[in-house]
Design brief:
By secondary structure, the protein is of the alpha+beta class. The chain has 6 helices and 16 strands. The strands form 5 sheets. It has a 6-stranded mixed β-sheet with strand order 13-14-10-12-11-16. Strands 6-5-9-15 form a 4-stranded antiparallel β-sheet. A two-stranded antiparallel sheet has the order 1-2.
């Protein structure tokens, strides 16, 4: 995928793709072009796909990059190839056909159509929304707080989860905060959400000056919001390894607990595409246990 041409026809896993607007500057702050973002996704796919495969994806689309118009899309982007797998998903507003990102070819095809940010639910299409197989907590710092404070909160949440027999894995969100995942034995969205809400309330009871569970912005100053609601069957979370549509192409990247404990500066845990590729070359997929059936524990 040369970065010096405007259009290139490539073969990805036996599928012919015409990659367009390769010279488009998506991230002026860092100089990243569309070609470079496509190259990142093509290379990161082996690590990313275990966390998206089988799950109905939604996308944040922004064909001209974060500086242009963006929107959340559940339906396949116009121009999506016919071979891209789709599954029906029932929503309040009706049933939609959603893409399943289960191969490098699908991932590259979606990114080529401006679907740069991938989001998935905590359940697979095969099992359905009544069988969530992972729990997620989104730690979002309010004004006056930052990723360092999120890391402090995450350490205590890790202990609480461990006390309940669940193993937490940390992923910097690529935005301002931190995602904590735990693999769970399949349970209903209501059960997982209920447990996550109770866990967040426990944490707020312990540290009322540090943690909040209310979305109200006025209550969040200097505190970390523990957003437990992303465990609802209708909600999605930015997929591990996705590039975020912000000023910089920061990535939702798995991190070690040693890194979380040692964090003293938010910039220490900010990773661009090239950083993440280097990390995967060095460490492999730090989040691999999340996709392993053997690691799933029942909710208490």
């Amino acid at each position: 995928m040369p970065a010096s041409v405007e259009r290139q026809v490539v073969d990805v896993e036996g599928h012919r793709l015409s990659l367009s607007h390769l010279d488009r500057l998506l991230y002026p702050a860092t100089g990243h072009t569309k070609a470079q973002v496509l190259q990142y996704y093509a290379r990161i796919a082996p690590a990313m796909l275990p966390h998206t495969a089988g799950r109905p994806a939604s996308f944040v689309r922004a064909p001209e990059g974060p500086g242009g118009e963006s929107w959340v899309a559940k339906n396949p982007p116009p121009g999506a190839p016919g071979w891209v797998p789709r599954v029906p998903v029932r929503h309040r507003e009706g049933t939609t056909e959603q893409v399943v990102v289960d191969s490098t070819a699908v991932l590259v095809a979606m990114v080529n159509l401006g679907a740069y940010e991938v989001h998935v639910p905590q359940w697979t299409a095969a099992a359905g929304p009544d069988a969530h197989d992972r729990l997620v907590l989104d730690l979002d710092p309010g004004p006056g707080a930052d990723l360092v404070v999120c890391c402090r909160v995450a350490q205590r949440l890790r202990q609480l989860l461990d006390d309940d027999g669940l193993t937490a894995h940390a992923v910097v969100s690529g935005s301002k905060g931190l995602h904590l995942y735990a693999p769970v034995h399949p349970a209903s969205g209501r059960a997982v959400s209920g447990y996550a809400k109770e866990l967040a309330a426990r944490m707020m009871g312990e540290h009322p000056g540090l943690v909040v569970v209310s979305m109200a912005r006025v209550e969040r100053r200097g505190k970390v919001l523990i957003d437990w609601s992303q465990n609802a069957s209708a909600k999605t979370t930015a997929a591990p390894y996705t590039v975020r549509l912000r000023e910089r192409p920061d990535v939702a990247a798995p991190v070690t607990w040693d890194e979380v404990v040692a964090c003293r500066d938010p910039d220490e845990l900010v990773f661009g595409p090239e950083d993440v590729l280097d990390r995967v070359d060095t460490y492999g997929d730090l989040l691999a246990p999340l996709a392993a059936d053997a690691t799933r524990a029942r909710l208490p």
